[in-house]
């Protein structure tokens, strides 16, 4: 007598949303801070008085099509 194997039923993948949400919020916050420094720093809402931040993100500003001069 031969036995045939039953086809394996794949189990659904469980995504732990409660573990992902704090990291997603952290990444979005970092992205918004980076976007602020690239887009608005040394403008009307400048946090730092010198031009160091502007010069540091100058090429990124042009790459993302933000005018700066």
Automatic annotation (TrEMBL):
Residue stretches spanning the membrane: 20-38
Write out the entry's keywords from A to Z: Membrane, Transmembrane, Transmembrane helix
InterPro entries hit by this protein: CbtB_put
Q: What is this protein called?
A: Cobalt transporter subunit CbtB
This chain's source organism reads Amycolatopsis vancoresmycina DSM 44592
């Amino acid at each position: 007598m031969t036995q045939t194997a039953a086809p394996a039923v794949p189990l659904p993948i469980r995504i732990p949303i409660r573990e992902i949400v704090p990291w997603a919020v952290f990444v979005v916050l970092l992205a918004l801070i980076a976007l602020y420094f690239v887009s608005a720093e040394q403008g009307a809402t400048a946090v730092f008085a010198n031009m160091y931040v502007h010069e540091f993100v100058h090429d990124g500003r042009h790459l993302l099509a933000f005018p700066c001069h």
